[in-house]
Amino acid sequence: MFKYFRAGLFFFIIFSTTFSSAKESKSYFPFLAEEALNRGYVLPKPIGINFIYVDMTQDVKVESLKLKGDIILSPFLKPISLEKIITVTAKDTVSSIQNKIVKTDIWLFPFLNIYGLLGETKGYSKTKIDISLNKPVITNADFKLDYDGITYGVGTTIVGGVGNIFIATDVNYTRTSLNIIDGNIDALIISPKLGYNFNFSSFKNSIWIGGMYQEISQTLKGNIADVINMPIPIRNGKFEIKEKAASPWNTVIGFRSEINTNYEIMTEIGFGTKESIALALGYRF
């Protein structure tokens, strides 16, 4: 369920700085800037800071869900292993996340940008489950995980183009630590895009269409008490979920506008099995 809040992190990449125009910088970066300028390319200022907000909802496929622990009926009786006597069936699963992220980047070369990010993740993941003994004892119950945590990571964007048409591929790796999950959650996400640069009035703009690929299969573990109220007390109650993306691909469309050589705004919308919106304000120097 949680892996998709990471997908939300991917949208911070969405070229909030990729094609902003700027005067030639006195910085040492990017390398090979003079060669690019001599060929007629207009380069952005080398260093950027972006403030990004992402809201995303996504379908998740649960492959298995286990509840572990001991049932204590009496201090005089031997504990009963929960896992041995019940069967858990997972149904529909929906994940919703909100990310607030600060991203800093630098152009090492005119075609290569690298960046780091740090942000806050909040959201929930909700699964309908049935719990059965010899017959159902809990039906259509909410197995809901309300979570928050810190996300950090690194990434790179490779760009190229002819005239006003550009292509870009972004790759990023993030790690998130959540308050109700044992361990960390890692994600590797790849996003290719095709776009067009154009001027409108005094603003320089870019539009694009592309996709996001995120094939993740993982096991998440935590405390039962954090996600569901059991009708009987469970000692050392733990849950274990194996899950993967309902679909690894979704489609994105985006727009960026340069306010001036320092400031720009960006928005990107994702649709398909992942529905999302990302907003960003960027500053370059």
Which characteristics define this entry?
Lipocalin, 13 strands, single chain, 285 residues, mainly beta, 6% helix
Describe this structure in words.
- This protein has 3 helices and 13 strands.
- It has 285 residues and is mostly beta strands.
- The protein has a single domain (3-85, 94-125, 145-284), classed as Lipocalin (Beta Barrel), CATH 2.40.128.
- The protein has a 10-stranded antiparallel beta barrel.
- It is elongated.
- It starts with a helix and ends with a strand.
Helix content: under 10%
Rg of Cα set: 23 Å
The CATH level-2 architecture is identified as Beta Barrel
- Strand content is over 45%
How are the strands ordered across the major sheet? Answer: 1-3-4-5-6-7-8-11-12-13
The global form is: elongated
CATH topology-level name? Lipocalin
Number of helices, counting only DSSP H or I runs of 4 residues or more:
3
- CATH first level: Mainly Beta
Termini separation (Å)?
Answer: 39 Å
Largest sheet: 10 strands, antiparallel, barrel
The protein's oligomeric status is single chain
Order of helices and strands: HHEEHEEEEEEEEEEE
Q: Structural class, please?
A: mainly beta
Which segments are poorly predicted (pLDDT under 50) over 5 or more consecutive residues? Answer: 1-25
Overall mean pLDDT? 84
Question: What is the tally of beta strands?
Answer: 13
Query: Structurally, how many domains make up the residues?
Result: 1
